[in-house]
Amino acid sequence: MRFKMILASSLSKKIYMSIAGLVWSAFLLVHLLGNLQLLNPDRDPFNKYSYFLTHQTGEFIYLAEFLLAFFFITHFLYAIWVQIGNWRARPHGYSMVRWAKNTSKRSLGSVTMIYTGALVLIFLVLHLIHFKYGEVVYYTPKGYTHQIRDMYFTVMEFFKNPVNVFFYVAVMVLLGFHLSHGAWSAFQSLGLSGKRFTPFIYTIGVLFAIVVAVGFVFLPLWIYFTRGGAL
Ligand code: HEM
């Protein structure tokens, strides 16, 4: 009973969502850095990196995938729970959203969290279907005697289609909005706030969101317009 009450308290929900959100933010940064190898017209470094992650890290990759899935799903379920609570508390909603300049951090990012989060969830399912569980082509990279998956080829083929490029760019912009509020508010919920600290954390959160969104927007555009560096 006590455990149930702790789980349901709005502070625990926020703290849990913050931790899950920060884990995902760290993943996004690492994922972006790894994906920057797609800018290299030589397919080997990216494919060897992908092969290392999927075949040479032992049980670690399964644990990491399990934790990512767990944190994503629970972060989303908690978000819906909090949102339903908010709707119940204000059944008619606000007739007008006011952007409080100095008193709060109400922003486009903050009022659209549940919608941008839902879109990222849909994106993620499609993303895994296309790449992780998509077409598998094998080849033998330089210095190897056996074949490995040519993930580079799968990505290049995918971003030849302007519809896919447009979809990715649009979702990455929305992801940026989600992160711009999420990163800052996570630190706030974890108690890292104060007169001096809050503006600092806010700036770091927004900068992080911009770096991640711009990085992920750049990749499909660059692949599309340069044909993967071939031009
Ligand atoms: C331009 C943007 C992106 C590109 C080009 C990209 C590329 C890829 C590729 C190639 C893989 C397969 C890796 C492998 O199996 O070796 C992958 C996996 C994955 N991506 Fe992305 N990605 C992008 C954006 C994102 C975003 C924004 C998210 C999260 C919101 C994300 C989450 C994931 C996850 C969770 C996996 C599975 C990792 C695993 O199970 O090991 N990706 N991505």
Structure commentary:
- With 231 residues, the protein is mainly alpha-helical.
- The chain has one domain.
- The chain is built from nine helices and two strands.
- Strands 1-2 form a two-stranded antiparallel sheet.
- The longest helix is centred in the first third of the chain and has 30 residues, at 60-89.
- It is globular, with a radius of gyration of 20 Å.
- The termini are far apart.
- The structure holds protoporphyrin IX containing FE.
- Protoporphyrin IX containing FE (HEM) binds next to helix 2, helix 3, helix 4, helix 6 and helix 7.
Structure, briefly:
This protein is an all-alpha fold and 231 residues long. The protein has helices at residues 2-8, 10-35, 44-55, 60-89, 108-111, 113-132, 151-158, 162-189, 197-226; strands at residues 138-139, 148-149. The chain has one domain (2-35, 44-87, 107-226).
Total number of strands: 2
Mean pLDDT equals 89
| Beginning-to-end CA distance, first to last residue | 63 Å
Which quaternary structure do these chains form?
single chain
Order of helices and strands: HHHHHHEEHHH
Radius of gyration: 20 Å
Instruction: Quickly count the domains.
Output: 1
Treating each run of at least 4 consecutive H or I residues as one helix, how many helices? Answer: 9
Adjacency order of strands in the biggest sheet: 1-2
Structural class: mainly alpha
The hetero molecules present are: protoporphyrin IX containing FE
Strand content: under 5%
Largest sheet: 2 strands, antiparallel
Helical coverage, percent range: over 70%
Using the alpha-carbon principal axes, give the shape. globular
- Poorly predicted runs are none
